[in-house]
User: What shape does this take?
Amino acid sequence: MSNDHDHHDGNDDHELRVSKIRDGTVIDHVNGGQALNVLAILGIDGSKGEEVSVGMNVPSDRLARKDIVKVEGRELSQDEVDVLSLIAPDATINIVRNYEVIEKHRVERPDAVTGVLSCPNPGCITTAGEPVTSKFEVLDDAVRCVYCETIVRDEIPSLIDT
Ligand SMILES: [Zn+2]
Assistant: This one.
């Protein structure tokens, strides 16, 4: 048997889990079940040899269950963080360098996102072949197309245009 039970300091355990990567980004406190959508937003499907670890439905203080995504060798752009905030509004972005978290912040939901989601309404001017870029107003638990006022909630991941 190992002596795993000997370390009883929960905080350190959490920090350890977060900082296991060397250089990159840990996206913590992702709503349970959204990790694969986070990877999709980041354009990560494993085909380019990306080094990624994913924890799904891990017990969490802040959320009942959370996902955690660790991406080696990558820091996220503001655009990526904005889109992430739509499906993971409680996420924490940890920037890791040389195994240490050097920066940590909660995502902030932007007032609006432009050009990142496709409107699901086939009659919307943004999907009718007109040169109009999609724009969605960000609400508390959904987004709303500013052109046709279609409200999108659960389908957000499938409408991301990356
Ligand atoms: Zn629309």
Notes: The first helix runs from residue 10 to 18. The chain has four helices and nine strands.
